[in-house]
Design goal:
With 261 residues, the chain is mainly α. The chain has 8 helices and 2 strands, in the order E-E-H-H-H-H-H-H-H-H. It has one domain. A two-stranded antiparallel ribbon has the order 1-2. A hairpin with a 2-residue loop joins strand 1 and strand 2 (11-14). Residues 257-261 have low confidence and may be disordered. The chain crosses the membrane at residues 15-33, 45-66, 86-104, 195-211, 231-248.
Length: 261
């Protein structure tokens, strides 16, 4: 756990903020490389990314603060300190999608193909974000007897909740999964029909997140059964499967056949 990586006088570089920035830059690179598959100009690609990023950060923070409001009840000013961690992926994902819908309508872009292009970018950015979570000490796991368990320093939130216990490095599990997803979907978006990459990502991430939540030690459960992320997963898994079947059966040509831009 290294929430602060470097400090120069009054200037502090926090691990979570740095990894979020790295994830954003890698996401920019992915979208720049694949933008032609959605017929986006370089300006449209960069603007859409900026719109999605702002909406994603706001949505992710809102979901986190609502879910863990007790942390902020007496310190409302801390709500804006996103550099210290505290983002919920699904919240950012939902608000970013809504922002992209508006932007694509304004620019007359094909929303589905834009979302296809965004899938590998989201995966690589997410992987970096989870590494940041691990370094920051948030989104920690449940106790484990396996040799890969990690101990958090005394006084940290994880150590206070699970004193002297080794915890699953669930943040690194998800980071590794997202790196694999990035590699697969970087190719998938180039060689499949319109909408297939986006749909498969929805279903696959829903499954992965549902399983990962079984190893999380920080999330509350709704009705003592599922975490909020698992409940969302139960919605997007069948949605993603249904959309994948729908787009796979359509007679659109594969993405790599449509490179007029």
């Amino acid at each position: 756990m290294h929430p602060i990586l470097l400090q120069f006088g009054s200037v502090t570089i926090r691990s979570y903020g740095l990894m979020a920035a790295v994830g954003f830059l890698l996401g920019c690179l992915m979208i720049g490389v694949n933008r032609k598959y959605a017929k986006m100009s370089s300006d449209q690609a960069s603007t859409s990314l900026f719109v999605a990023m702002i909406a994603g950060i706001v949505g992710a923070r809102i979901f986190y603060v609502v879910q863990f409001f007790d942390k902020y009840r007496d310190h409302l000013w801390r709500i804006v300190r996103i550099d210290q961690g505290g983002l919920v992926f699904y919240g950012g994902f939902i608000l970013a999608i809504l922002a992209l819908i508006v932007y694509c309508r304004m620019q007359k872009l094909d929303l589905v193909r834009v979302l296809d292009v965004y899938t590998p970018a989201i995966a690589i950015a997410h992987a970096c974000g989870r590494i940041g979570c691990f370094l920051n000490g948030c989104c920690y796991g449940r106790p484990t007897a396996l040799g890969i368990g990690v101990h958090y320093p005394p006084g940290s939130e994880a150590a206070l909740r699970y004193p002297e216990q080794a915890l699953h490095p669930v943040q690194l599990y998800e980071a590794a999964e997202m790196l694999v997803v990035w590699g697969v979907f970087f190719q998938l978006v180039r060689h499949t029909k319109r909408g297939v990459a986006m749909s498969c990502y929805l279903a696959l991430y829903g499954v992965l997140r549902f399983v990962n939540e079984l190893f999380r030690g920080d999330n509350p459960k709704a009705f003592d059964l599922f975490t909020p992320a698992q409940l969302i997963g139960l919605v997007i898994i069948p949605l993603g499967i249904g959309l994948a079947i729908y787009f796979a059966r359509k007679h659109d040509e594969p993405q790599d056949a449509d490179l007029s831009n």
